[in-house]
Amino acid sequence: MKRRDVLKAAGLGIAGASTLAMPAIAQATPELKWRMTSSFPKSMDVLYGNGELVAKYVAEATDNKFQIQLFAPGEIVPALQALDAVANNTIEMAHTCSYYYWGKDPAFAFGTAVPFGLNSRMQNAWMYYGGGIELMNEFYAKFGVVGFPAGNTGAQMGGWFRKEINTPEDLKGLKMRIAGFGGAVLQKLGVIPQQIAGGDIYPSLEKGTIDAAEWVGPYDDEKIGFYKVAPYYYYPGFWEGGAYLHAFINKAKYDALPDSYKQALQIATKAATSDMQARYDMVNPPAMKRLAQAGAKLRPFSQQVLSACFDAAQQSYDELNAKNADFKKMYDSMMAYRRDAFLWFQVSEYPADTFLMVQQREGKL
Amino acid sequence: MKRRDVLKAAGLGIAGASTLAMPAIAQATPELKWRMTSSFPKSMDVLYGNGELVAKYVAEATDNKFQIQLFAPGEIVPALQALDAVANNTIEMAHTCSYYYWGKDPAFAFGTAVPFGLNSRMQNAWMYYGGGIELMNEFYAKFGVVGFPAGNTGAQMGGWFRKEINTPEDLKGLKMRIAGFGGAVLQKLGVIPQQIAGGDIYPSLEKGTIDAAEWVGPYDDEKIGFYKVAPYYYYPGFWEGGAYLHAFINKAKYDALPDSYKQALQIATKAATSDMQARYDMVNPPAMKRLAQAGAKLRPFSQQVLSACFDAAQQSYDELNAKNADFKKMYDSMMAYRRDAFLWFQVSEYPADTFLMVQQREGKL
């Protein structure tokens, strides 16, 4: 056993983790029991459940030797302290969103979604084949963590509003529960972003303490019942056109893993990312129909509103690029792809979808 | 060891494959060396390469104990005999397309793509969370194979035409290299579908033996150089809006695998499916730009042409549903989802994409 491997193995707290020199199976595949804290309440079964899938796939890929136990927010670590808990080794892993940590550094936003960014297919292209994972991990390393996408919601909804929003002027003074980068962009148009924990959103909307709130999409939003207190359901959620969840792993712990376990984590998170999108795409359509029947009033943001928000987003990008080199590096990489991707998707995907959407409206599907 | 497990193990040709009673690791994770024949030429690196990814991920998930060696078409089995070779146990696995076997039974088409069917995200929703995999495998079992999606191209292009196609009349008498269900639909409009092997398409177009040919999309099509002999590059390829490749496995061999290896195959194929879409979404945009610069003339099929094809497809569906119960079962399941999916995608995904496509055209991205 090489000295380097002994050190790695010591880091793992197990007898031997070499994948190089030792023939015995037990050493290449040590028994590990890790803990992963989730930022998502158990009631959000697709979000929380994706953490369970990651754990299940890792266990399956390692013949149950690498076990990851998932904990709900607050059981060990509060929801939004997940990244810190992983960084300081309180817990080995977290299932959370990178952009929750936007306050530490705005560059965290690129790990989830940025305003007027990529759709979920494009996110996968950029992350897995456009250098995204490598760029993000250069950055995450500064915080002592390794991160992989672990779930994608697709384009989220714009949220629930107590009154209609027709022009950018209607946004002025609006108290809206919206976090991070999306909130910062809307703030430029006069919105007053509110940070409100999940369970408090509904009563705040009901009392009128806030005027609007964004959450996820029909399937998750239906559970909270927003439509009863803020009936206007706007789309699209342009600040998260394809929002990733992330699995964060303590970097020292990750680096000490046998290669086969590193691979297991990567394959498991990739498969789970595909699963979440597929699952949302299956459960959102009927949820949206139920919401519409229950009285939700679906409204598209007007082109005028979207254009004002797009300009505000560009202003935010310019400001952040000017003062944050990490942010600019990711921005340049993602936006170069965005230009090409939104050209290409006009060619075959969009006309194919458009034609079938027209048939749907005409009752021919 | 239970008798059933002894039988299973005998089927594998190894000493012990029980995942139930035997504690020793060597028996839960036997060393297996399988062979997989590809239907895709090595020159099509994304298609062929996805078979390599499946093998790589399975090896990684089993600590290199379950090895799958990939063979190019013709090395062991000709491209389009892949399914038969797996069914009759000439080889353990194939990486191919389900719809290549449409001639055996049209229901094979649902494993890849059907005309005016689902886009690739919807395909994943239906397959993984809409009962698709279960339905397909009930059907595949009749042929002695188990199948999992293993790659998706996204919406393909409509192909290369020597002259413009403006109305359905322009399709009459057109000799087009197009296979399977898409060919059968176009035949109703007067197209004469041609079955031509990959390497012969270009010379056939050059000589004018055929008038048109469909292949995959910009990245793959560019390699063949179609634009030099048939410059009109039509879209969308409405007969394959999100075309899956499949990994087929001999059913007796699959059934005898330890559970952990079955899971490894499922996770590996799911991750590889995500990879192929991501990879195509990264390499197609620049390829399309290069093709346009080289002289390819991009053309959308007119609404009139698409509508005529849609009606012809519906006629084919009606005919096949009337005489093929397996076909109808899959059709009913997929099309119920299609109705809801193309409604839901109009809500957030489509307006988000549309807005950014408009910005792209206006040079703002």
TrEMBL record, chains A, B:
Record-listed substrate binding positions: Q156, R177, E214, E240
Key words of the record: Metal-binding, Signal
GO CC term, one of those recorded: tripartite ATP-independent periplasmic transporter complex
Signal sequence segment: 1-26
Biological process, per Gene Ontology: organic acid transport; transmembrane transport
GO molecular function: metal ion binding; organic acid binding
InterPro entries, per the entry: DctP_fam (IPR018389), SBP_TakP-like (IPR026289), TakP/all3028 (IPR041722), TAT_signal (IPR006311), TRAP_DctP_sf (IPR038404)
Pfam families recorded: DctP
Record bears the keyword Signal: yes
UniProt entry tagged with the keyword Metal-binding: yes
Gene3D superfamilies the UniProt entry points to: Bacterial extracellular solute-binding protein, family 7, Periplasmic binding protein-like II
Residues annotated as binding Na(+): W215
Protein name from the UniProt record: TRAP-type mannitol/chloroaromatic compound transport system, substrate-binding protein
Native source species: Faunimonas pinastri
Taxonomic lineage from the root: Bacteria, Pseudomonadati, Pseudomonadota, Alphaproteobacteria, Hyphomicrobiales
